[in-house]
Structures are given as structure tokens and as C-alpha cells.
Amino acid sequence: MSSQDHGTPASAGASAPSSAPEQPTPPLRLRLRRLLPYFGHQRWVWVLALCGTLLGAATEPLIPALLKPLLDSGFTDGTLQLWMVPLAIVGVFLVRGVAQFTSQYAITRIANEGMLLLRQALFERLLTAEMALFTRQSSSALSNTVVYEVQTGATLLVQALMGISRDGFTLVALLGYLLYLNWQLTLIVAVVVPAVTWIMKTLSRRLYRITKASQQATDELAYVVEENVLAHRMVRLHGAQAVQQERFGQLSDSLRRLALKATIASAAMTPLTQLLAAVALSIVICVALWQSRAGSSEAHAITVGGFASFIAAMLMLVAPMRRMADVANPLTRGVAALERGLQLIHGTASEQGGTHTPQPVQGALELRDVSVRFGTGEHAPALDRVNLQVRPGEVVALVGPSGAGKTTLVNLLPRFVLPTGGEVLLDGVALPDWQLDHLRAQFAMVSQDVVMLHASIAANVALGAPLDETRVQQCLQAANLAEHVASLPQGMHTLVGHNASQLSGGQRQRLAIARALYRDAPILILDEATSALDTESERLVQEALQRLMRGRTTLVIAHRLSTIEHADRVVVMQQGRIAEQGSHAQLLAQGGLYARLQTPTALADEPSLAP
Ligand SMILES: Nc1ncnc2c1ncn2[C@@H]1O[C@H](COP(=O)(O)OP(=O)(O)OP(=O)(O)O)[C@@H](O)[C@H]1O
Ligand SMILES: [Mg+2]
Predict the structure, then answer these.
(1) What is the pTM assigned to this prediction?
(2) Which of 7, 275, 440, 444 has the most C-beta neighbours closer than 10 Å?
(3) How far is the CA of 594 from the centre of ligand 2 (A)?
(4) Which regions of 13-65 does DSSP assign to beta strands (E)?
(5) Atom of ligand 1 nearest to the CA of 404
(6) Do 149 and 343 meet the contact criterion of CB atoms below 8 Å apart?
(7) What's the distance, Cα to Cα, between the start and end of the chain in Å?
(8) What is the spatial distance between Cα 373 and Cα 572, in angstroms, rounded to a whole number?
(9) Using one digit for the tens of pLDDT, what is the confidence trace for 506-515?
(10) Which of the ligands is closest to the CA of residue 398?
(11) Does ligand 1 lie within 6 Å of residue 416's CB atom?
(12) Digit-coded pLDDT (tens) for 523-582
């Protein structure tokens, strides 16, 4: 299910059913059992559903059964009491209606409660999943699974379950009645059933494969839309519409092909089943006519009413049988959709943490021979055997050209990135031994790409902690954002829009700084925290940050001298390694990479370390 094995859209469309990674599909019974933890609760509702469907199905043969006395004693003999007609007919439909209502309600309830549990489990998994999940699957694929697939899956499954139980029991009841009426004739009807089952099986297996492939194609399509919405400005500026249109068109086309294939498979089911039923019907009528002519003198001769009942019951058999053939369609589709959710729950590991929870935390950091390699290994490592020690309370500036591994290094600390070699220690204890929440509670972070939730400014600042308005106000003040917030219609309670799109880049960054200030954690990580600010507001924010850094271990990534010069130590990185380190003055005197990067333009407060 990873985005890597999607393949190109064209190949996915052309040969999807056969090329989809085919582990042998486990039997349906097993697959349904895996859904049991979510849909198997509420015993009494299941009982209600079962009773409702059983009762409803039992009323089914009553309708043809009424025909026999109606025709034989009503029309032929004329002995039937008139008041019995409405009583019987209305009575049957009343019972049937109540039964159907009950079963429908109960089954819908089961489906929705199941959906609720499954969705919650999915979302919980999303919050605790190992970080690798988010590089493996796009955000649209994940939200598709959690929001839509579960919904579609559960709805289809309910329809299918409802159909199976209703039609299955109806079939049994009608067949029972037919056997009772005339077993010889019924045997002929029974021949049809295996034939129908066989057709159903073959077609539904194909349908399942097509469904899987079109789920993937839908993901890719959603992903293209997502990307183009995110990058709508750049796409227009660069005139990339044609390419994007082409990309979208190809995917839509492969989806269309898959939809047609699915329709061919499912649409063939109904006529084939009906054809078989028609063959059976004609045979039965012939045999019945032959029987009644041959045995008209015997005691069990077929009466008109008996024959009409038989044919009526048999015709009533066709509809549920046809629906039973169709049921494979929503059932397989529904299960396939829900399985995508299950795959996410069972196929994704949770983040693992230890048990170490000391109080208080000193904030001594150490990297021992740490390497980080993204992807499968052809790439140069992002970090290559880095050794670094940071004393509690020390302010270390990380500088270096773009792509040197600075962000990767700081992301190791809250375990957003896991080292592929070596180990990272906090206060002398390896990070995996720390209890994860406790470890992360030690960090305040302003990351390079600021992400905000669609909530009020105050909620974004306090994120996760109890909201204290006076403190929020202080933090906004320190981050030099209070003035702007005051000018907003609802002050700090103004909603910031999707990823704070209602704020400017610099305002967003100051909001992130306010959040870090509010957090008040022993270790501070600033990844180009002030890169989007003008010189004046940077100076103001810098003062607040300076105050915050006091007494805290701080790692600050910056290109600007104004930030670097306050650091106790400067660590210069290049291509995943530490090239040199020392104080600003030492490094300048040394005349190495740092000195070269600090050209006169850099001193003029330009972000010159950037390429
Ligand atoms: N999730 C990822 N998957 C694959 N490669 C990655 C990933 N994140 C970073 N890299 C690679 O790791 C290397 C280091 O990236 P990093 O973000 O640490 O650089 P940086 O020093 O922070 O650069 P900048 O100053 O531009 O922010 C880069 O070559 C980058 O391509
Ligand atoms: Mg970076």
C-alpha cells in the first residue's frame, strides 16, 4: 500500500488486475472475522437484527401460501369468509413491516457503531504511528482511508449484510415451502443454486482485484489534486497547467477503465443469474403440467391453487436469488475498503519509547557516531558519523550550507528522525530509553516549516497545554506579535485559517516563536526561527529569544550573524559532517569554511550562508 508501489498510472491502468501485488486473498470468512472486534460488539442488537430478518423471511412464503386457499376455496369452491381476506393480507404485511424495520435499524446501528470504533482506532493509530508512515503514504491517502474508505466500507458492508440475511433466510423459507408443496419440482430448482454460486464466485474474485486497483488510482488522483491545491500559485506562475492536466487526465482515464471493468464484471452477474432462473422456470412449468396431466386422477393431484402457489413462490425466489448474486459486489467492495483501514492499524508500528522519566532534566545532549540515511542507501547520508556534545545551558549555533544536515540533526532529538547508526543521548541516557512523551516534553521547537492548526491564535500558542490567556498575551508580546493580534477583530481568539494562511510568513513565524515561549521547556530548538522577519522585528524577537535561551540548552540554526554571535559555540556542518567548531571569533581567525561563508555581505546582515 505504499506510495512507492503504485507504479506509473499507465501501467496501473493497463494491467492492474493481474499486476496488483497478489498475495492469495484469504477466504472471505477469515477476512470478515478480522472485522469482528469492531462490528462484533452489542450482542443484543445482533440478536434483534437476526430475529427481525428471520421473522421477515418467515412471512415471505405466507404470501404465496395465501394464494392456495384463496384460489381453491375462494374462487373454485366459494367457501372462503370475506373478512378473512383483509385480515390475512394486512396481518402478513404488518408483521413483515415491523420485522423489516427492526432488522434494518439494528444492522445500521451495528455498522455505525463499528464505523465509529474503527475510525477512532484509525485516528489513534495516526497520532501514534511511527514517523515513517508519513513518508510512505501521502496525506490524502491517509485521510481518504480514515474518512471515506471506512464510511464506504461500512455502508456497503451493511447493505450486503442486510441483503444476505434477508434474502438468505427468504430463500430458505421459500425453498422449504416449495419442498413441502412439491419436492420433485423443487429438486429442479435446486440445481440452479450451485450454478449461480459458481458464477458469483468467479465474478466477485475479479471484482475484488479491480476494486483494490481503483482504490489506489483514486488515491493517486486525490494526491494530484492535493498537490495542485497546495501549489496553485507556483503551477500558474510556471505555466505547468498543461503537464498537470495531462497527469490528472491519465489518472482519470485509468480510473474510468477500472470503473468500466468493474461494471462489466458486476453487470454480467444479474443477466446470467436471470437467464438461469428463466431456464429453471420453463422446465418447472413443463414438468408441473406434465405431472398434473399424468396424475389428475390421483389423490395428490396438483390443484390450480397449489400450482399458482408454487409458481408464485418460485418467482419470488428469483428476486432474492438475483440479489444474492449481486451481494458479492458490495460485500467484496466493502470488505476491501475496510481492510485498507485494518491494514493501516495492523500494518503500521507504533512509536516505541522506554520508561525513563527523571525530574528535573538537565539538558545535556550527546551524539555518538550518529548517521542518518534516508531512503535505501544510494544517496549520500544526511548525517555521517557525527559526534557532538552540548552541555546543559549551552547555546550552540549550527551553520552550514543548505542540505548540510542541520535540520536532520535537530530532528533526531525529539525522535522525529531515527538514527540509522550510532546513538543520541539526553543526560547520558539513550533516547529510546526515555519515555516518549516525557522526552518530547523537554523540547520547545520552532521548526523551519511552521505548521499551525486551524484554531484560534491563543489555542495555537498554548497547543496541548492548558490555556492561560495572560501568559499567551505575554508570549505574543515577547514574540512581537501582540500589536498585530490586537488589531484583529477577535484578538487572540481569531481563527487563523488553514495552516494560518491568514497570517503573513513573518507573522506565522512569530506565532511559532510565541508557541515556543509558552512551552517553557528546558531545551530549545530554533530552526531558522527568524529567517522571515525584517531586521527591526528580528531585533525585537531576538531579545525575547535571548531571554528565553538563558539557562536552557539551545540549538539554533541560523544564517544570520545577528543570531550566531550570541552563541557560546558555533558548529559548522558540511555534507552531513561537522567541518569545524569554535567561537565566532576563533572560527573567523581560523580562516576555514566558516570564514569563507562570512563574506562581507554576510556582515551586512544578509542570509549569505544560504546558496
Ligand atoms: N525526509 C527525507 N527524505 C529523504 N531525504 C531527506 C529527507 N529529509 C532530508 N533529506 C536529505 O537530507 C539532507 C540534509 O537535509 P537537511 O534538511 O538536514 O538540511 P539542512 O542543513 O537543514 O538544509 P537547509 O539549510 O536547506 O534547511 C539533504 O540532502 C536532504 O535532501
Ligand atoms: Mg533545514
Answers:
(1) 0.72
(2) 444
(3) 17
(4) none
(5) 21
(6) no
(7) 37
(8) 20
(9) 888 889 999 9
(10) 1
(11) no
(12) 999 998 888 888 887 887 888 788 888 889 999 998 877 778 888 999 999 999 999 999
